[in-house]
Amino acid sequence: MDLSRIPCGSGEFPGGKADGWYIYSLAVAKVAYYDWSIDWVSAAPDGFTRPVIGINGQWPPPEVHIDKGDRVIARVYNNLGNQSTGIHWHGLYQRGSQTMDGPSGISQCPIAPNGTFTYDFEVSLVDFPARRLLTRAKVNQAGTYWYHSHNQGQYPDGLRAPFIVHDAAAPYAGKYDEEFTLTMTDWYHEQMPVLLHQYESTSDQSTTDNGITAPVPDTGLLNDQVDAKIKMQPGKTYLVHMICHSNYAGVMIWFEGHNFTVVEVDGVYTEEAYVGAKNIRLAPGQRWTFLVEARPDASANYAIFATLDVNMLFPPLGLPYFGFAGNMSAWLVYDETKPLPPVPTFYAFDFFDDWSLIPYDREPILEPNHQIVMDTGFQNINGITRAVINNVTYLTQKVPSLYTAATVGAEYSSNPEVYGQVNPFILNYGETVEIVVNNNHNNLHPWHIHGHDFQVIQRGDPNVGPFSGYWANISSTPLKRDTIMANKNSNVVIRFKADNPGVWAFHCHIEWHIDSGLMATLVEAPDYISRDVKIPEDQIQVCKDYGMGYAGNAAGNTQNVLDLTGSNSQVQAYAQGAMYPPAQDFYKRKRSTLGVSPASPLMNHPRRSRS
After folding, report:
1. Which of 206, 207, 210, 468 ranks highest by number of CB atoms within 10 Å?
2. In what residue span(s) does the Plastocyanin-like domain sit (predicted)?
3. Residues contacting residue 228 through CB under 8 Å, at least 6 positions apart
4. What is the C-alpha separation between 553 and 559, in angstroms, rounded?
5. Closest of 117, 127, 134 to residue 36, by C-alpha
6. Higher confidence at residue 3 or residue 153?
7. Whole-prediction pTM value?
C-alpha cells in the first residue's frame, strides 16, 4: 500500500506545511500530520437524517493509515459550539506519551468549544532508557485500532473511525493482495445528551439496567451504511480489518461462501487460526483481522449478514431475530451485473471462540504478585441507576487523574485518597498484576484496558458466579487482547505487566455504563509519574478554557492534598453528556439546542417508540 499520499488535513507543520495529503518523511520514520476540525454534519446513514459529529465537515470521519514507526501529530479544533470533545487512540499504549491517551478527566481536560488540543505520539519500538522511563518512547504496535471521542458519552454520535498501523514485517506480510476495513455499529436516531438524560436522571428514569434495558438502538450499520457493497476480485487474498464501534450491542457477523483465517485480535498477532464458515462475535471496542480467499471466479455475488447481539440488548427477554431492526446486510460483489443474493435466515449461530487463539509471540503465562478483585454491578444511588465497582461508582473529578499524579509530589502520588472517587488502584512498576472482574449483573460487559493489552487467564461461562479458583487447564500461552467480554453473572481473570507508567482507564466499553460509573483508574508507577511527567503548557490552557483544574488532588487542592473538600462525591440529579457549559441543568437548556450546534438549522425529532 502506498502511504506517501494519505488525507491528513492541512496546516502549518514544524519545518514545513501539510497540504492536506502529504505525510512528511524524516530520517527514520514519517510524520503524519492531521489538522482536524470537529464539526456538526448532517447525515442519514440509514435514511433518517440527523446531526452527527464529523471531521472537517465530513462524516464518517477519515480512516487513518500509517506505518509502524510513524509519528502522529493531530491538531484537534473543537468547532461544535455547544459540546466539549477529545480524542482517544483506542488500543495504543502511549508509552512515554501518557498525556496523549485522550480520555477526559483522566489524561486531559475536555476541549471546550473553540479550543484546540494537539496530540503528538509515535508508533514504533524503542526500549525505555534505564534512568528515565518517561522520556518520549515508541511502542511496539501494529495492526487494527480506532480513534474515538472519550468524552462524556459522545462517540456514539459519530466521532469515531478506524486507525490502521501497517507493518512490513508482520507475520502475514506477503500473504495477501489487498485489504479493506469493515466497521460495525449500533445506531441511534436520537442524540446522546438526550439519551443519557433518559438513562441517568431522576426526572426521567424511563429505562434502567436493573429493569429492562438501556436506550435501544434504532438500527445497525456496516461501514456506516446499510446495504454496503465490497468489491472483490476472483483469486485474490484479502486482509480484512474488522472493528466494532458499537455503543451498546456486540455484533455477530457471517460471510456467505468465504472462509476466514484469524491473524490478529486487538493489535496482537496470533498464530493463524482457521475459522471456516463459523460466525464471528465482536464486543464493543474489539477488533479482529482475517485473511480471506476470494472465490476463483465471478459467477456470483455473496451476502454478508450481521446482527446486533440481542442477548445484550434484551436480557432476559430473548427477543426473536425475525424482523429485528438490528439485522444488517452487505454484499461481496464480484460482478455488478449479476443480482445480489437474498440474506439467509438463521435459526442458530455457531460462534468461533477466541479462547482458542494463541499469540504469535507465545508469551508464557505470567505469574502475578498483585491481585485486584473488582466486584461489579449496579445500584440505585440518589434515585439514579449507577454502575459500581466494589460498591463505589466512578465520578469525574475536578482535576484529571494523571495531572494529580504528576503534581501532588512523590510523597502522595501513591496514596489512592488524593485521586478522589475514581476507583483508583495503585500499581508499582514491574509488578505482574492480576485483575479479577466479578460480573454480578444479568448482562454481558466488554472490559477494555488503556495503556496495555492483557493475558486472558480464564473467562467463566454465563451464570457460574464470582471467581472461586483457577481452572486445571489454563493455557500456558494465553489469549492476549485489550478488550474481553465478561459473561453475565460470571467472572473473567486477566494479567499484565505493570511496565508502562501512567494513569490508565479500565472500564466496560458500553458507553452507557462508562458514563454511569463502570470504570476504574489504574495509577501505574506513580513515583515515576511524579518525577518525570510534566503537563504541557498547551494542555494547561485547555483546562483553563474549559474551567477545570490542572494541579493538585481531586478537588484541585495544591496546599493540603489530603483535604478532599470540594471533590466530586455525589451523583448528580441529571445527566447532560458533553453539553457545554457543563454546569447547566438539563432542563434549563432549550430543547432545540441540546444536540445540535446553535448555528445549525437542524431540528430535533421525537424518539422512536421501542414497541
Report:
1. 207
2. 39-124, 136-168, 178-307, 396-526
3. 222, 304, 330, 331
4. 9
5. 117
6. 153
7. 0.90
